[in-house]
Backbone:
């Protein structure tokens, strides 16, 4: 008890002493916290919050802009010297958080550990987004070349990925076993003690609980605006909001739409919101014996009034996509495609035509893993019933997307990078996850269109091929994108932060330009 | 005393083995970890690759043997998610939970014993009824409701107390009160009933007749004899709390304890962590029970001399 009291006195004293310095320190309370921090193996929405402060890619972009505008990162310049080759000049004098200077060998190591992955978690990422890369090659101490297997039009986009952030070779090797050899255990250990070149270094990491960033004085770019940022896991939304009120925290993540009014009403708080670059999905098993008739699946999508759901569940603030497309895709954003619509009469007609006899259609969903998931599922059952579909909800914590008996279920398709290849292209490629799980089929014509969409050097051709793919999806739908969810972050007045439109979803960017603190905070 | 200790030890060992086996198979019956850990949106090739990587490709029997081997060589495996030894993960969570448990127990004893005695000796007076009313209130209000109420009043409105984590002594106040409320309610009632049982006994009348001061009669002759009942209730409560009772409280106050860890591991099917965590908790419960068993002997001379066993 005496120790407790001493602790209190100490804490109060410290709070009083650190008043002025606290202007450069913040605490962030997050709904989800990572168990490891390795940007190369991770592609989760939880992990994406944390990497950008610690690491740099070779090529940055202006993250304040939606349209891609490439900026020098750890490479100061780059030039595509052939359809399959990119030559990059490296920045000089870049320091890792360990104090070591970044060399061309570090860069080659970072890239080739992914391009030629033999560590299973890296192999998975290599195959789903880096498959076209062949190798990276050192030309001299400042110059490297990256080779692809086939002509690549997305060099900058892909070299900007978190999977290709640059890490120190000698440090990685030193982590486990033989300090000079590369072992899989080195990669495992790196996830607990990550080191990069970013404006913040990782001062402390308690897996599942806490991430502490500290300004890295040796950073090559504009210094970090915060001296320290502590990110804590607080699973309950009520506790996160209370922590903001008490001043324990400055920013809180994952604020559901129904809390926004309370935040607006509080003079000490404010909220920043954005439509996140991912879709909540309804996916359908085209190979289920009772679902093979495309007319049944078309009816399932046509019966759903997504605009009404948006009004009711998201206060109208989510976005209802007409096709599998996002405005982040720049020239490849194709809202003119009307792949999905609401037409209950057409749904009824198709059901009658297909001879639907009222058999039960099971809708699997997680116990509210996605915001509004359960409410949406319940409403969808009613909308189905209105056109005569006999739906049944099946709450199921496990992923059922690979089970042959799965009929319909919830899913999400995040934007892994800002191109349709980084969203639709990852999940619905020929031989990709959806087909491989047995719930989606492709044929030669689909594969040919997909090849043109992914690899054609002609933008118009890419768009035409994508339109072709979407026409296929419309005629024989394996999914319905429900919406781009509307995500909110709450913060204290005096904290100036908002999600940057140039990032993948959920990034907590605390770099210069992304956050400032007013003196009163 | 020695044979009693040996019996207790043997019982502990058997219980532990049964728990270990149950934990292993029960966790696996809740679903294939492959469907949770490996992730969605993978090709079948990558899925197979990761199943091998997480060492989930063996039969249950092979996995069970590997699991039992852990008790011999001390290698209980790596977390599916954090990829570090589970013993390390669980060890970091035990002390915060224990701290919360101890502070809740301390508060309970300090409040419930006097309140229970008061309710017994003043049972016809309004103070006795008031004590029982408080106890019933604590019993009727679920801890998550109380937690939210306390947060609302003391953090959200008054802004007096923090709610996130266990950094300072101030952080202990709300979770301790939340956790202790139910315990205080239960222990007050049991103390009252146990005291009522002994207050009417002959030896109490004798003690008073000897001219002992009332204070000594109540505390020495009364409470000491009611002690066995009270002790067993405390033992059960502590064991129950250690087993999982603080899960909700830990989650609400973002307390980095073992309850929070177990729930998250269960949701994500991080079996190595879940198994080891449950076993650690089971070991704690067994040790607490054994300690209570031995404490009986201390409290009851008849047990010590083996006349009642």
Residues:
């Amino acid at each position: 008890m005496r120790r407790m009291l001493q602790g209190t006195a100490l804490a109060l004293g410290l709070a009083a002493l650190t008043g002025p310095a606290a202007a450069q320190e913040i605490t962030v309370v997050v709904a989800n916290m990572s168990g490891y921090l390795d940007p190369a193996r991770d592609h989760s929405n939880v992990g994406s919050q944390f990497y950008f402060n610690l690491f740099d890619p070779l090529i940055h972009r202006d993250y304040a802009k939606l349209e891609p505008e490439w900026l020098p990162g750890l490479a100061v310049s780059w030039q595509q010297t052939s359809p399959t080759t990119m030559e990059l000049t490296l920045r000089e004098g870049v320091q890792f958080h360990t104090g070591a200077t970044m060399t061309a060998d570090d860069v080659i190591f970072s890239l080739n550990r992914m391009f030629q992955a033999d560590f299973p978690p890296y192999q998975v990422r290599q195959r789903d987004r880096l498959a076209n890369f062949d190798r990276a090659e050192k030309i001299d101490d400042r110059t490297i070349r990256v080779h692809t297997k086939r002509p690549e039009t997305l060099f900058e986009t892909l070299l900007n990925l978190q999977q290709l952030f640059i890490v120190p070779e000698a440090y990685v090797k030193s982590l486990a076993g033989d300090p000079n050899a590369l072992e899989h255990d080195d990669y495992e250990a790196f996830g607990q003690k990550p080191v990069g070149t970013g404006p913040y270094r990782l001062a402390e990491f308690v897996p599942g609980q806490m991430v502490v960033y500290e300004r890295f004085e040796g950073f090559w770019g504009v210094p970090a605006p915060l001296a320290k940022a502590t990110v804590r896991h607080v699973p309950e939304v009520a506790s996160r909001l209370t922590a903001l009120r008490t001043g324990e925290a400055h920013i809180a993540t994952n604020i559901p739409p129904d809390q926004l009014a309370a935040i607006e009403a509080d003079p000490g708080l404010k909220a920043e919101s954005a439509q996140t670059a991912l879709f909540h999905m309804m996916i359908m098993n085209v190979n289920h014996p009772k679902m093979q008739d495309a007319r049944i699946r078309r009816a399932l999508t046509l019966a759903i009034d997504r605009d009404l759901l948006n009004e009711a569940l998201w206060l109208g603030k989510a976005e209802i996509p007409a096709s599998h497309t996002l405005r982040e895709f720049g020239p490849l954003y194709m809202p003119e495609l009307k792949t999905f619509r609401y037409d209950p009469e057409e749904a009824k007609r198709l059901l009658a035509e297909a001879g639907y006899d009222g058999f039960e259609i099971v809708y699997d969903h997680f116990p509210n893993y996605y915001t509004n998931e359960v409410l949406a599922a319940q409403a969808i059952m009613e909308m189905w019933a209105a056109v005569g579909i006999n739906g049944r909800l099946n709450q199921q914590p496990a992923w059922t997307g690979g089970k042959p008996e799965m009929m319909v279920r919830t899913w999400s398709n995040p934007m892994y990078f800002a191109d349709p290849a980084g969203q639709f292209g990852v999940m619905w490629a020929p031989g990709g996850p959806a087909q491989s799980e047995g719930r989606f089929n492709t044929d030669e014509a689909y594969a040919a269109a997909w090849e043109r969409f992914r690899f054609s050097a002609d933008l118009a051709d890419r768009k035409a091929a994508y339109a072709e793919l979407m026409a296929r999806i419309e005629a024989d739908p394996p999914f319905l994108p429900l919406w781009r969810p509307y995500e909110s972050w709450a913060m204290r007045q005096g904290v100036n932060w908002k999600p940057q439109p140039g990032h993948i979803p959920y990034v907590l960017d605390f770099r210069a330009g992304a956050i400032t603190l007013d003196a009163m905070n | 005393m020695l044979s009693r200790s040996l019996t207790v030890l043997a019982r502990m060992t058997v219980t532990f083995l049964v728990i270990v086996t149950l934990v292993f198979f029960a966790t696996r019956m809740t679903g294939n970890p492959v469907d949770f850990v490996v992730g969605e949106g993978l090709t079948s090739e990558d899925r197979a690759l990761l199943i091998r990587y997480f060492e989930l490709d063996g039969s249950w029997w092979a996995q069970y043997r590997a699991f039992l081997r852990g008790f011999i060589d001390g290698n209980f495996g790596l977390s599916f998610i954090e990829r570090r030894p589970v013993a390390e993960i669980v060890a970091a969570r035990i002390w915060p939970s224990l701290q919360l448990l101890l502070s809740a127990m301390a508060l309970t004893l300090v409040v419930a014993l006097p309140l229970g005695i008061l309710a017994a000796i003043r049972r016809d007076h309004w103070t006795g009824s008031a004590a029982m009313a408080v106890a019933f209130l604590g019993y009727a209000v679920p801890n998550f409701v109380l937690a939210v109420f306390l947060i609302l009043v003391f953090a959200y409105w008054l802004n007096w107390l923090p709610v996130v984590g266990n950094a300072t002594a101030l952080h202990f106040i709300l979770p301790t009160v939340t956790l202790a409320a139910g315990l205080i309610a239960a222990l007050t009632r049991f103390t009252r009933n146990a005291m009522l049982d002994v207050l009417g006994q002959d030896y109490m009348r004798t003690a008073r007749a000897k001219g002992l001061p009332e204070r000594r009669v109540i505390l020495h002759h009364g409470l000491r004899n009611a002690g066995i009942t009270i002790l067993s209730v405390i033992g059960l409560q502590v064991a129950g709390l250690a087993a999982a009772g603080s899960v909700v409280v830990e989650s609400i106050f973002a307390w980095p304890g073992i309850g929070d860890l177990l729930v998250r591991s269960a949701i994500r099917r991080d079996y190595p962590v879940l198994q080891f965590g449950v076993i650690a908790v089971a070991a704690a419960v067994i040790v607490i029970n054994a300690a209570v068993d031995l404490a009986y002997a201390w409290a009851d001379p008849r047990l010590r001399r083996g006349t009642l066993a």
User: Anything to note?
Assistant: Chain A has a mean pLDDT of 92. Chain A touches chain B through 50 residues (CB under 8 Å).
